[in-house]
Amino acid sequence: MTKNKILPALLVIFSSLFLSACGKKDSSQQITPTPTPRLIQLSADQKPYISLIPRADGHLLTLKIDRIPEDFVEIEYEVLYLATDQGIEIEKGLGDTIKVDSPSIERELLLGTESCTHGCKYKYDEGITGGTVTLTLVSKDSQVTTYESKFTLLSGAQIKQQSKLDLPSENFEISALPTNKAEYFVLLKNYGIPKGSSVDSVFSVFSSGTGQGSVKSITPDSITKEDTSKISGDYLVN
């Protein structure tokens, strides 16, 4: 082989070896997995008390979280619900992450869309009768605790028509007659309990007004309510 032919051949060999070396990965490098958050259990009196208060027109809910333990620094929330559009059911949802800077926080949850390009305009979702609210509380040392509950959203007129406000997923029912048909009511199983109470859990009803009405019966009958002249309030699981 002539000198002119040997040089190109050597260049090809060296190039192949160089590229092969570059392609090798250091097998000693290891990816450190993200640690799985540790789940913690809170006692009934440690759990935050949740309020989900409907606006007078039922198109907005105010989420209030009270008595947040001081170890928690972040809360992720998600609300899912079914709405109807031209007779078709569509799943909608909203959520966010809240940095905790006080024992009590609140957020307004619009059940629809908002456009404020040239003055604010709203398109409200229709046909909503309830949904699911989920909270994930994260502590300073990355421990988490989660709350999830179905909720029912009905107007006083709807309650009067069906003579009840219920939460089928929990087999809980209130036979009631609201005073004001235009009021809206939200029923959910709470995360916390009323301050000073000794029960383990409660169902809570929140209204857009006074919540007045006649509570005729509660199912199961082991659940009680002190003031039956109001539909809103806490129903104690004994």
3D architecture notes:
- By secondary structure, the chain is mostly beta strands.
- The protein has one domain.
- It is built from 2 helices and 17 strands.
- Strands 1, 4, 5, 9, 10, 13, 14, 16 and 17 form a 9-stranded mixed sheet that branches.
- The radius of gyration is 28 Å and the shape is globular.
The rough form would be described as globular
Instruction: Determine the mean pLDDT.
Output: 88
N-to-C CA distance: 99 Å
Question: Largest sheet, described in full?
Answer: 9 strands, mixed
Q: What is the succession of H and E elements? A: HEEEEEEEEEEHEEEEEEE
Strand share of the residues? over 45%
Q: Helical percent range?
A: 10-25%
**Which segments are poorly predicted (pLDDT under 50) over 5 or more consecutive residues?**
5-25
Class by helix and strand content? mainly beta
What is the number of independent domains? 1
**Rg, please?**
28 Å
- Tally of contiguous helical segments: 2
The tally of beta strands, per DSSP, is: 17
